[in-house]
Queue: 2 jobs
Job 1
Amino acid sequence: MKIPKRKLFLLIIFAYVAFSLYAAYNVFFSTKAISRVHRVVKKETAPSGGVRDGGAVAPFVGDEWNPWENEQVDYNSALNKKREAFKQYIGRIDKNKPKRYKVQIWGKAAIGLYLWEHILEGPLNPTDKVAQWREGELQCGKVDFSFYTGPAVVQGHVPLEMNSLVLVLNGREQQKVTYSTRWLEHVKALVQSHTVSHVAVVLLGNERCNNDWIGPYLKRNGGFVDLLFLVYDSPWVNDKDVFQWPLGVATYRQFPMIRPNAQMITSNRPYLCNFLGTVYKNSSREVLMQVLKQSGLDKECITTAREKWLPQETTDSLRHYQTALAQSELTLCPVGVNTECYRIYEACSYGSVPVVEDVQTPGTCAAGPSAPLRLLKAAGAPFIFINDWKELPAILERERSMSQEQRVDRRRRLLEWYASFRQQMKERFTEVIEETFFKTV
């Protein structure tokens, strides 16, 4: 039967109104349904502000229940335990990690370059040797060293980021002493202001071992200098707070760090010996030159004598000198004001055996069975020691009879010894700094 459109429309209107009334009733008047996922807990509120549950007063609880609440608590607890375990692990790592110390070196004398580049083997930037400011960093043992040198390194303008300092000074002559004293007074002020706590000095001492001017600055005499590394055979050396230090090569003459190679070790060297230097009046150097000339040995050795000492090398003279070292089996090392001279170390750099005049020079330097050159002798230096240059002809005669294989073997041993000696000095310097500066840390 076909329903009239009017009745169909009224039926739809009726159904809509009925559904709307039903929905309104459920929203405003019907009791809420309780489900397992989301239920309402109705409790009687206690007078005290809690809720009454079966007659007992319980703390106020929320209206909604979270079925994953226990799992969340367990997860957070486990996460916190993991975090705590990780913190303890990091703490153990930090505790077991070797402690490192920082020491700054101010190179205000040329021997500072021997310390930094030849002994500690540290880098320098820029590489230009005449740069006004040069610096470098390296790690050695437990110590992180930083080094500053050059004319632009002046008092009050060096970035001092640590409280341990090594000052490299020259005390060979009065003018140098005056300059070094100003630096010591500057460091003294830093100590008094508690900016610096530990101080060591590496000193190119006087060639006659007259170093009394620095005595008052030593801690044992009421000063602030904890350690003194002193060049030449000073009677002060006790290996407690004063240690002997090697003179090294003439860095002030731009003598470089030489890296040995196979050719240096195995090449045929055309000369038996060399001596290039100043010949002073009435010195043993005059005797040396006479012996070479009278025996005709000057033809088998490279010799260049000058009457006046020159503080600086030219590019040509430095190249000539290095060539002489590289082409000679032996380097003759007569005494000057002191027995220890740069030539000894420069000869070692090229594997040319130093022939050293082993005699005590005038002054207050330590005497005794091991003096002079006690530092080198204690290290087992493979040199040829003589007391008189009249012994030289016999020495050179033996040189002629040596085979090339013997010469190569001796050359290798000398280069290995010199590398080992510098390594020993590096370890000694670092260990003494660590033990003295940081023993109570």
Job 2
Amino acid sequence: MTPDLSIVVPLYNEASGLPFFHRKLSDHARRVAEARAMRIEIVYVDDGSRDATASVAADLQPHGIDVQVVALSRNFGKEAALMAGLDHARGDALLFMDGDGQHPPEMMETFVSLWKDEGYDVAYAVKADRTDEPPARRLFVRMFYRLLNFGAATRIPEDAADFRLLSPRAAAALRRLPERNRFFKGLSSWIGFRQKAVPYRPAAREHGSSSWSFLRLLGLSMEGLTSFSPAPLRMAGMVGALLAGAAFLYGSWIVLERLIWGIPLPGYPSVVVGLMVIGGVQLLVIGIMGEYIARILSEIKARPVYFVADHAVRHAEPVSEKSMAVELPKALP
């Protein structure tokens, strides 16, 4: 039978902690399924891990919950893994969460309650604070969201995580979006409907280490900006206008100095500095335009976002009821 809720979990190098995470997630999912009379499945998506994550995931047992394991042919990135989970999920509603254990599975009850009892279509987790992160990273995140929401028609909540639940109609709307350069947080906010933020504190990693380096975060930020927001182009235009205005004022001032006060024209250093500044800004604007053109080219090529190497579905075996029959003693001869 078709599940009511699919839990999509992207994986990357999580072999050491995956068995413990699976048992914990299965226990909470089974508890919710029994309390709500729902059918729930878990969809693990291995994003080309370099360790034994794919083989460990393939051996996971369905502890009362159906389990799908989708192994991608290589590492396509988290956004592609989320899309693979979206495509393979059989449930009407979707719950996305990371497989590193930092998204608490016990919040599942809260998300389902917001969906079933209060009628919210999107319930998403938001970090309560970032005091445990370095100041440079907090500043980078704040600047990223300011730039992302600059002039945007739909505001993307700051500090929102991929950990969220989408109701059936919200999941159906997300499935209708055709673009290949996807920014999941932005798309799930753009579809609208009733949305609710749920503060949470990420749990500490019990196994392994995070694979998100600063360069990968920077790449994801550029992906989000260029695929969802025109802010970089607008800011580049504003910088160009400011430089043009400053150059005009400076040129006018030089002419006035020469004609009125007889001050000789400045030498080559000012000219060279001006050319370097203008040339640097031009290269920056060309680079930003190149990022947008690269996204357009990717959409025109229409290449598949991912390829699946292996796919397996394990159905949970129904719990057999214990027989209440009592064996009667054999009649004496």
